[in-house]
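Action item from last meeting closed. Structure (304 res):
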């Protein structure tokens, strides 16, 4: 069975976390100067260039999404994770703005409800996976169950003691469950693209302050975000372990530099478009017989 995973433009491979690699986030630059060409440009020129790329990608994404729907074989699952203010919502809005709304659905995941907590941790995500031909976007995902819940084990659902977080190997068990879950999806025609939007702690501070400087952004500010910021280092640890354990050949993680929103958006758009284009999909073939039936129909309509 072919579980090679998504094929993307060569230069994007450098953002993929190699399977089994031990991730240390301090080794990943969240800034904009991501290669020699960009480094030599002024920030304005780089932004201009990347925004033009994003424009092109959006147009291409609209076309390949139509093919994805028509060929009705694969589904695309896009997982977005990142610290608070990392830019998940904005990335979705900018990257998907050209796509036919009927071919794409976005699901955001908040604190689980009592009903959700009464089921296994994958249940609420499984229910809303994209069907064949569709692009599904998870704004947060089952990865929260090894991130926020890892940092705050008291927020976990109640499990039988012998299976709970104090039992040995609990977290590695969850990573294995996630890997098995994703492998199952891949083997059934889902292409999984996982993005960690990587921002620096200082950039988060600026973004939180921006929400307090602008009346129209007040609603975005949650005091909970400030509380979570106190756990920054714990989150970094949880992310590092998670990224190291769940980046696989069939469902790799991309670490996306996200201190500059236009870099993150363009990179995400580039990965999605090149992964879908790489499937080399075509419109369904029409047999001679079907062509004849279509032509008969045409004649009948014209004769009315
Ligand atoms: P937001 O994305 O700003 O709307 O916030 C959603 C909140 O839901 C965040 O604080 C997440 O940490 C929280 N959340 C999402 N999934 C889970 C989960 N599985 N367990 C606990 N909290 C979660
Ligand atoms: Mg929030």
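Sequence:
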């Amino acid at each position: 069975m072919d579980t090679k995973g998504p094929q993307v433009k060569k230069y994007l491979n450098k953002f993929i976390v190699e399977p089994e690699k031990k991730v240390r986030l301090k080794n990943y630059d969240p800034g904009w100067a991501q290669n020699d060409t960009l480094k030599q440009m002024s920030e304005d020129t780089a932004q201009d260039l990347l925004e033009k790329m994003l424009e092109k990608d959006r147009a291409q994404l609209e076309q390949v999404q139509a093919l994805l729907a028509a060929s009705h074989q694969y589904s695309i699952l896009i997982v977005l994770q990142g610290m608070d203010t990392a830019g998940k919502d904005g990335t979705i809005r900018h990257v998907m703005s050209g796509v036919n709304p009927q071919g794409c659905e976005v699901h955001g995941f908040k604190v689980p409800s009592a009903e959700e907590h009464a089921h296994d941790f994958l249940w609420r995500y499984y229910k809303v996976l994209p069907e064949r031909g569709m692009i599904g976007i998870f704004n947060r995902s089952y990865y929260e169950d090894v991130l926020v819940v890892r940092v705050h084990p008291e927020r976990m659902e109640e499990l039988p003691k012998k299976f709970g977080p104090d039992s040995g190997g609990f977290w590695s068990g969850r990573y294995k469950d996630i890997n098995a879950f994703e492998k199952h999806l891949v083997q059934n025609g889902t292409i999984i693209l996982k993005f960690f939007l990587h921002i620096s702690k200082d950039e988060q501070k600026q973004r939180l302050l921006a929400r307090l400087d602008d009346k129209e952004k007040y609603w975005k500010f949650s005091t909970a975000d400030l509380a979570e910021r106190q756990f920054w280092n714990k989150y970094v640890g949880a992310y590092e372990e998670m990224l190291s354990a769940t980046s696989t050949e069939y469902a790799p993680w991309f670490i996306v530099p996200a201190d500059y929103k236009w870099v993150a958006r363009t990179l995400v758009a580039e990965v999605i478009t090149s992964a879908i284009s790489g499937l080399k999909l075509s419109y369904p073939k029409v047999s001679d017989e079907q062509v004849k039936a279509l032509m008969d129909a045409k004649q009948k309509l014209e004769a009315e």
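Note appended to the action item: The radius of gyration is 22 Å.
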